[in-house]
C-alpha cells in the first residue's frame, strides 16, 4: 500500500493519463524498439547514432511509463455525480463563473494538479484561486491572495458537468 495521498482527478483527466500510457505502451515503445533492433543489426553500436538515440528514447519512454503507472495507482476519480452533496458549493470538478471588481467575468474549473491548464480555464485544487473558492456559494465574495496582490471576486455561477456558457 502506498504511503502517498490519493491524487484527485476528473474522469477526463483520468482518461487523458490512461490514453497517454496506452499510446506509449502500444504504439511508441514497439515502434522505437523496432528502430533500435534495426539499428543494432547494422553493426558497431558505439558509432551508431540511430542505435544510441533509440536506446535513450526507450529509457525516456520507460521512465514515463513508470511515472504514469504510479500516478494511475494513486488517482481517485471524482465524477460530477459524486459531487451531488456539493451542489450549491464550490468543490472539486466544479466550473465557477466569477466576476471581478471591474465587472469582467472569468470561468474556471477546479481540477487535480495533473490537469491544470490555464488556457482551458482549468486550475489546480492547490492554486490560490481554488483554495479561496472551495466551499463557497453563489453570491459569496472571495479574496484571492496572489503574488502580485489581492484580487476580489463574486461567485456568479457554480456548475458541475458541462462548462457554463456565461
Structure description:
The protein is of the alpha/beta class and 166 residues long. The protein has helices spanning 11-40, 49-74, 128-133; strands spanning 7-9, 75-77, 94-100, 105-111, 122-124, 141-146, 149-160. It has two domains: 7-77, Transcription elongation factor, GreA/GreB, N-terminal domain (Helix Hairpins), CATH 1.10.287; 80-160, Chitinase A, domain 3. Strands 5-4-3-7-6 form a five-stranded mixed beta sheet. Strands 1-2 form a two-stranded parallel sheet. A hairpin with a 2-residue loop joins β6 and β7. It is elongated. The mean pLDDT is 89.
Largest sheet: 5 strands, mixed
Strand order of the largest sheet: 5-4-3-7-6
Pairing-aware structural class of the strands and helices?
A: alpha/beta
Number of helices: 3
- Tell me the Rg in angstroms: 22 Å
- Can you identify the CATH superfamily of the largest domain? Transcription elongation factor, GreA/GreB, C-terminal domain
The portion of residues forming beta strands comes to 15-25%
CATH class of the largest domain: Alpha Beta
Order of helices and strands: EHHEEEEHEE
Helix content: 25-40%
How many domains? The number is 2
The CATH architecture of the largest domain comes to Roll
Envelope shape: elongated
Q: Total strand count, please?
A: 7
CATH topology of the largest domain: Chitinase A, domain 3
Low-confidence stretches: none
Amino acid at each position: 500500500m502506498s504511503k502517498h495521498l490519493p491524487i484527485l482527478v476528473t474522469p477526463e483527466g483520468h482518461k487523458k493519463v490512461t490514453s497517454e500510457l496506452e499510446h506509449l505502451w502500444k504504439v511508441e515503445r514497439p515502434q522505437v524498439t523496432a528502430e533500435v533492433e534495426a539499428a543494432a543489426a547494422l553493426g558497431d553500436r558505439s558509432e551508431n547514432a540511430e542505435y544510441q538515440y533509440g536506446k535513450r528514447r526507450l529509457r525516456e519512454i520507460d521512465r514515463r511509463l513508470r511515472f504514469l503507472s504510479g500516478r494511475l495507482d494513486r488517482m481517485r476519480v471524482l465524477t460530477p455525480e459524486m459531487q451531488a452533496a456539493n451542489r450549491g458549493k464550490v468543490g472539486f470538478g466544479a466550473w465557477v463563473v466569477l466576476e471581478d471588481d471591474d465587472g469582467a467575468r472569468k470561468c474556471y474549473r477546479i481540477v487535480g494538479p495533473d490537469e491544470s491548464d490555464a488556457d482551458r480555464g482549468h486550475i489546480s485544487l492547490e492554486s490560490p484561486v481554488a483554495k479561496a473558492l472551495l466551499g463557497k456559494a453563489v453570491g459569496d465574495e472571495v479574496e484571492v491572495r496572489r503574488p502580485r496582490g489581492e484580487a476580489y471576486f463574486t461567485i456568479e455561477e457554480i456548475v458541475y458537468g458541462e462548462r457554463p456558457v456565461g
